[in-house]
UniProtKB/TrEMBL annotation:
A single Gene Ontology CC term: cytosol
Name under which the protein is recorded: Acyl-ACP desaturase
UniProt-listed Gene3D superfamilies: Ribonucleotide Reductase, subunit A
Pfam families: FA_desaturase_2
Cofactor names: Fe(2+); Fe cation
Length: 322
């Protein structure tokens, strides 16, 4: 049995694939400007410049929309952590440097435009938003729960995680736009979701090439990510409350994670159709299949509990109205 390849060796072997995918991305991307997606006519000064400070009645967003918008924005705000992760795990050599720079610049626009929208429309409390940003960015983020692993070189884990994370973020942005009841917000979040999809394709293609190069090693990384997936918003202020609201109202819930993120990605990589794994890889694939079966049961239980809860709330509203 040949020895496992190191991160450095894998990156070197895959650099031509990275270069081709940087070129593909640049040809596919749509250039856009954040200021074109913000309704500036709705803006006015705050108290320090002679206007009026924010108050809750000024927001036209529902509680669900506010929770989702704040979660999405704080996720984008943590770009310094993601950039640091990308530099450490992907490196700054050749095509990898080109990708890290391009990806970082594009991601930065997302935070800019969402914040401008929320401040101009007074959708959320800007002081609370800034306090949450400070806390979240200061805490940073790693794709694993292991604090020591945050800075441990693991190229394969990183590209696998980024694939699922970018797709999850795309789903969250797109569904958030639908609950904002504002065509401007919906258009803005559609634009961001399209970016996230292209980013996902880059990482998905890199992981696909890694599966061809080092099947067992790449499968181990993919399975580890699927079985221990953490949304990038984990750890931000009020994340649990906001994520529960988002799940309850179908913005991002276990069913979406399973059916729109995990399953299609594993199908794209042909994880359960490949015949190039060793016996060790086959065993790991069986473990992953067992996990997915248990996850499906968890999803069903969540849906049943949510349906009962929503039905109970609807009955209570009807009783009060009567």
């Amino acid at each position: 049995m040949s020895r496992p390849l190191t991160d450095r060796e894998i990156r070197s072997e895959l650099e031509p694939v990275a270069a081709a995918n940087v070129n593909r991305h640049e040809a596919a991307v749509t250039e856009w400007n954040p200021h074109d997606y913000v309704p500036w006519e709705r803006g006015r000064n705050f108290a320090r410049t002679g206007g009026v400070d924010w108050s809750p009645e000024q927001s036209q967003l529902s509680d669900v929309a506010k929770a989702a918008m704040v979660t999405n924005l704080l996720t984008e705000d943590n770009l310094p952590s993601y950039h640091r992760w990308a530099v450490e795990q992907l490196s700054l050599d050749g095509a990898w440097e080109a990708w890290v720079g391009r990806w970082t610049a594009e991601e930065n626009r997302h935070g800019i435009v969402i914040r401008d929208y929320l401040v101009v429309t007074r959708g959320v409390d800007p002081i609370a938003l800034e306090q949450a940003r400070m806390q979240h960015v200061t805490n940073g983020f790693g794709p694993t729960a292991d604090e020591e692993a945050k800075h441990r070189p693991d190229f394969l884990l990183s590209v696998a995680y980024a694939t699922f994370q970018e797709l999850a973020t795309r789903v969250s942005h797109r569904n958030t736009g639908k609950v904002c009841d504002d065509p401007v917000a919906d258009r803005m979040l559609q634009r961001i979701a399209a970016d996230e999809n292209l980013h996902m394709v880059f990482y998905r293609n890199m992981c696909s090439a890694a599966l061809d190069l080092v099947p067992d090693q790449a499968l181990e990384a993919v399975a580890d990510v699927v079985e221990n997936f953490r949304m990038p918003g984990l750890g931000m202020p009020n994340f649990r409350r906001n994520s529960v609201l988002m799940a309850k109202h179908g913005i991002y819930d276990p069913r979406l994670h399973m059916d729109e993120v995990v399953k299609p990605t594993l199908r794209k990589w042909r994880i359960f159709d490949r015949d190039d794994f060793t016996s060790r890889g086959e065993q790991r694939r069986e473990q992953l299949a067992t996990y997915l079966e248990s996850l499906e049961h968890q999803v069903i239980r969540f849906e049943e509990q949510r349906d009962r809860r929503l039905a109970r709330e609807e009955r209570n509203r009807a009783s009060k109205a009567g």
